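Support request, priority: normal
Reporter: lab tech (M.K.)
Component: structure prediction queue

Hi team, I submitted a job for Fibronectin type-III domain-containing protein from Alistipes putredinis yesterday, and the status page still shows it as pending. I've pasted the exact input below so you can check whether something in the sequence is tripping the parser. The sequence length should be 705 residues. Please let me know if I need to resubmit or if it's stuck on your end.
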Amino acid sequence: MKKYFLCMVALLSLAIVACESDDTAPAPAVRPTFDLIDAQPDVTSAVVAANIESKGEVPISEVGFSYQEAGGEYVDVVCTNFKDGLARQTLTGLKPDTEYRWYCYAVLSGERFNASLSKTFKTLKEGEVPPAPTPQFGKPSASEVQATSASLACAYLYTGDAADIAEAGFGYKPAASAQTGYTMVEITPDDSSLSARLEELTPETAYEFYAYLVIDGKNYTSERVVFTTLKEGEQPGAPQFETPSSSGVSPTGATLACVYEYEGDGDVAEAGFGYKAGAQEEYTEVKAASTASPLTYELNGLEPETKYDFYAYVVIGDERYTSAVAQFTTLKAGENPEPEFGPVAATDVTASSAILTGSFTYEGEETVGIEVGFAYKASGETDYATKTVTASSGDKRAAITGLSAATTYTFHLYASIGGKQYRSEEGTFTTESGTVPPPENVYRTGWAELPVEVQNSDYYYAYHICPDFSVNGHRARNISICYSAEHHCPVWVSGPVHSCYKGSNGNRNYGPDPVIPSSIQPKNKTVEGSYNKGHMIGNNERSKTSGMNKQVSYYTNMAPQHSSTFNTGGGAWNNLEDQIDGYWCRDTLYTVVGCYFETWTDSYGNTAQPKRTGFGGVQASVPTMFYTLLLRTKKGNTEKSVMECSREELQCVAFVMSHAMQKGHEPERRDMRSVAEIERLTGFTFFANVPNAPKDTYNPSDWGL
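Reply from support: The job had stalled in the queue. We restarted it manually and it finished. Here are the results:
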């Protein structure tokens, strides 16, 4: 019988504690490790392979591979060739000259674990001759280790003719020896694995070994692995320890871990760790509460800035076995341990979106103000956009949208703890090329400013065309409105902004919107209290004709705004409108102006609370925050549609303004946000018809700030 144990002991107390129970809980599934091997593609098929290693007690019940054509759905294929830790599968029915992304998965105790990283391959073109195959190795292993002998094994993958293998075997030597050459053991391989029994080894000696194949005169080798023979007279099946490790080290504690393998039939009566400060002579031992894997123990009371030696031990019958000694050093008092990150990956990459994955572990005492998320940016850009995730330890996943087609992105997982930021390794991915399919629930796919309609009983939509103004022989669109029956107020109003809409007609002929039910609108223009009527799309921006001006004077384009500090000369909103007037260009500026009704605190600490006021006989909500979203070309004179522009040719931004902002405030960088952030706040999708709109980022200097 083969038993695997993962020992984990967190040092919390200097006292020895032991718990015994006849009820042993089922061992939890331990996440296996995956090492994906480069695929070997043909025209309509590909051989994929992966090394999979599981150290837990729960066996792997299923292994498989999942693959997708760019932008398509993932297809799972159960692996039918899994031996000695190497999974191999031929994917069939593929398209020629096509790129595919793939990863490996394993199932343990009904729980599926996916490899953290994925790989890509491209099938060959019709008639293209595949390159000569090369062997790929699994991780070599040593078993049945005794004082003078050991069994070696290694799985391998070779898609060529087995007759091409001229020689196979293992090379080995004492790991600490000055000997440069390896002793070679030649064997006859089977179709996917190598195995050999070594004899006449030296007791208590570490040996380094590797597997090899000779094909067409070329020597191919696996990675090097080390095993240690037993003491002379030591019973076979004694536990074999890996070097113990420490994590989560703090000023007064640490988490210790040690993996060991036991092949004997005896019961493990006790397991734990011994530890001591470097200057001390005696070790203090702590017993784990149970021998069930994983073992845990908590202890604190260690000295800050102190080096500790430690080892793992197990007791089987009357025999006691210990690992090698390892060290860790506690942190300074008040210092937080650094978080640990796993590898990051990007999957489900399309022309405009991707799924980012990674893992994060933090065992420090700091619990307040921790932020964890993914940061990403397009190549050539300097500023990262971010997408936050939960701050607890574990696997992390974030869906990123609004990306540009055929663009390479770099990304990482980050954690901000105690005012200091930590980050994982960088990952990269490239979005697919091609046209992004038109979004659903958009009134007109050719209108760049339109958000996606959100369907619920509270929202009413109106799309107004200028009755007396045409462009290129077609009546020009004016404004589009989403209006709330509950709030008696616009949720957002969108429209193009261009000098062709500007003239001298500004009669402000207030009245109800004929498209939206009059029962949910104000009955007249009177606004009670300290408020006046704040236009979303301004009167000045639609002054070319009386017809277009009348439409922006509908009540559905107005919200209550403070008359003395906000919507007045020198008011915060008016000053923002003046700033935006400077962004008009020969190309069109596209805008969405919206209202937010929940409690809002801005970057200056100004807080606005929800309230209502009388507006034409109804109790209208007073917005707590107004936002303006802007999209245009960077040059301003390209004479191209923004829907035809690349990401690099466009700029967009959101300005947010608390309704509590005082008179005299001029727009600043602290008023700016990414459009994606407003999407997350409101639940709307903005600029949906512009696939390359850089909604995930903004550059203040593009907007003169």
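The CA atoms of residues 143 and 151 lie 5 Å apart. Confidence is low (pLDDT under 50) at residues 1-25. Let us know if anything else looks off. Ticket resolved.
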